[in-house]
Q: What sequence folds into this?
């Protein structure tokens, strides 16, 4: 079935209010989840909603809590999420980073004791919509082996960078440090397909594109092998240190679920010093150059980061957001 | 042969002075190049010196120029490198970012019209040696195809993150957005070996570990395929915009060589708000956890980013820095 953006927001907000989330936060959380679905990231929108609600029920998310500034010095602030809804806190934190950037050119908010922000790209689009460069990342529970290891001790720690364009066609990268998400591996197995490139190791220790073999080990591959493994470790350390919060190691010791995360949200004013038009022209030169590359597969144009989200958004705005029947039943019953 | 750190610095500085570099800058450049060699990054130390000097001779590097602040607002400064020696300017820029971070918690210096900084990791170690988190990146000439493309229109845009430890055993990631450097591919071919994982495409468009086949196309692989390709584009855009400088696209239109780059150098004070010991303990918990992972290959311990550089540094300090005879002859003749 297809459901409109407004209907999704309404239902999400109602269900969250029923769990004790104040009306204003429930609406904001609903809007973020609906936007993620609108942009085609169903895994961190509508499909994730039942699990999100279960985290309230399990006490990982405090429905009534509010993120709070605990320390401030110049352009760097430290916040405590108090285990409130992660999307709401991340949105507030990026809004604050943008305010700081207006005052100091750059603003950094690091937040501890926060929860899953769902889709990191949302906060990149958020910064770009306000004319800002956005850079943000989160740590996660341990869900990936370090390079050279068998057991999962590092996080996939999604990393986001966004560059604004005045026409709203922002350039937004949203990249976890694992080559594929668990969801993608499971869906590929369900469809009886192979991954397009190796995504992990089988039980014999060989790299494989077979999602079923990877599911048996959950020894998933970091992006670029040793490189993504290293970047995951640094992203975790920097987030936990700046937030004064939990590391991936700490999170792994708490439960088998994922809460109490550390995140960094940075905004930078891209037009502070540049001549009028410089920023827009520089972006367009690069995007035109890259998207007119000689395609590796004839007829298949090279795309820029964020292009697919925007195309899906336009389609879903027109036709409604596709929602799986069984997911909608689960949500309706909450 | 093996040459001491001090001897390397002396020879580099002499040769640079002969090309018109003022004594102070020549010494600093020599120290950076010698340090890169000491840490085992010979490709961006001693082995690169003849090419560096040729860039002065070709006029890409202005030996007498000095990087200069052109604009400043709060914690964000824009600098012009005036095509001075890239290592000297990057060092100055990171020093300035650290000063700003002491004042505002975070400091960002973006520099345009600068030159190759040799090894990005140097500036990460530099920040960490002063107790700061360092994050920096550079753009490059177009040297890699975007994902889905055949021709090289994006840069490998090295990205660096560093976290300080009081004992000097900093955690430092220095990662280009290509899976392998050109130098690594050429060296692997020279040794008659295969790359450990696919590094590019052969003439038939298949991914391959054969360095000879990749040399025929120079269609090298981005880290994590579409992910590193996207990150390369964002790193380039953000650097060029914040510096008001050239993009990878612009650099590719200038010459077939590489100059006039854009770079971002960020420092953040990790202990601004944290309880005493928090930072150190958080780092140690993660590093101990990750390095005690179950190894994929028995007896082969999992390492953290920066660990190899430190081990090589200690060995080379004791035994001297290994230098190829023919490279030393070339340098001596300059």
A:
């Amino acid at each position: 079935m297809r459901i409109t953006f407004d209907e999704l927001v309404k239902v999400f907000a109602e269900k969250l209010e029923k769990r004790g989330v104040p009306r204003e936060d429930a609406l904001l959380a609903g809007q973020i989840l609906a936007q993620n679905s609108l942009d085609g990231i169903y895994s961190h929108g509508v499909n994730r909603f039942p699990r999100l609600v279960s985290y309230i029920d399990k006490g990982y998310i405090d429905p009534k809590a509010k993120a709070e500034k605990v320390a401030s010095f110049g352009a760097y602030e430290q916040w405590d999420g108090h285990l409130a809804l992660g999307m709401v806190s991340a949105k507030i934190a990026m809004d604050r980073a943008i305010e700081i950037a207006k005052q100091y050119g750059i603003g950094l908010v690091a937040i501890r004791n926060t929860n899953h922000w769902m889709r990191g790209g949302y906060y990149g689009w958020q910064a770009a919509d306000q004319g800002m460069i956005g850079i943000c990342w989160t740590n996660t529970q341990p869900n990936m082996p370090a390079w050279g290891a068998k057991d999962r001790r590092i996080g996939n720690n999604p990393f986001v960078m966004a560059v604004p364009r005045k026409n709203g066609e922002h350039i937004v990268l949203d990249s976890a440090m694992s080559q594929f998400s668990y969801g993608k591996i499971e869906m590929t197995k369900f469809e009886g397909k192979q991954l397009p490139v190796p995504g992990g190791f089988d039980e014999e220790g060989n790299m494989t594109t077979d999602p079923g073999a990877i599911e048996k080990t959950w020894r998933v591959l970091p992006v670029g092998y040793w490189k993504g493994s290293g970047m995951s470790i640094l992203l975790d350390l920097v987030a936990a240190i700046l937030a004064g919060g939990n590391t991936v190691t700490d999170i792994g010791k708490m439960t088998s679920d994922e809460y109490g995360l550390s995140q960094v949200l940075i905004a930078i004013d891209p037009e502070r010093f540049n001549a009028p038009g410089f920023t827009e022209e520089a972006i367009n030169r690069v995007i035109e150059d890259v998207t007119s590359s000689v395609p590796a597969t004839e007829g298949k144009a090279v795309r820029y980061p964020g292009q697919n989200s925007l195309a899906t958004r336009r389609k879903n705005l027109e036709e409604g957001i596709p929602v799986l029947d069984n997911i909608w039943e689960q949500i309706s019953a909450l």
Notes: The two ends of chain A are 19 Å apart (CA to CA). Residues 86-104 of chain A form the longest helix (19 residues).
